[in-house]
Amino acid sequence: MNTPFDHDPVQPPRRGLLSRIRGNFLTGLVVIAPVGLTIWLIWSVVGWIDGFVLPLVPQTYHPDRLIQDLLGLDPLAQINVRGIGVVIFLIFTVFVGWLAKGIIGRSFIRFAESLVERTPVVRSIYSGIKQISETIFAQNERSFETACLIEYPRKGIWAIGFVSTEAKGEIAAKTDDTGDMMSIFLPTTPNPTSGFLLFVPKRDVITLDMTVEDSAKLVISAGLVYPNGKALEDGEPPIADLNNRG
Prior knowledge:
By secondary structure, the chain is of the alpha+beta class.
């Protein structure tokens, strides 16, 4: 016999059919979206390169024409061979790089650049694009190796940045008497490819133990994906190197 003090254990509310369908849909979307967007992006880039390269190839040597002749198909049949343009582009780029390393190639490049330098408008465009290309693709350029914390946009508010280099020359001389300044790239969320270049005194920069990749994930996810999640569950969050502030 039940008394007024007897209570049934609280049962969690049952989710309705629409709620379960919605949950399954969101879960499937999380699984499918990265795969689908990656495939779409690669497919689009390959198609863009094909559309740029294949018109430069004589019609007789087009991949679809060669396949039609090989299989004896109707010349009016449309065959889309995607990716051949990428292969041609890679082979051509490797060939140009090989020529550029030789004496003849270097001489030709210097001659061509001297002509470009005499053209007012083209000179500015070419020099800007060349500087960007050398910064991104040059093998001897340093990449971001260290993540850090700096107080930005005001004291007491912290932001994740990436250490680029130590400031040199006029910037170092005119910003700090000790010349101990660092170039910090401060990425934006959720697009870390844009951001700000800040020159910060080294004493105000806190280096982090987390890798640049983990820091980038934290920035892109707006703080939702924290690195070393297992350590956090064990109550051991990564600690910044505070001794570097002194």
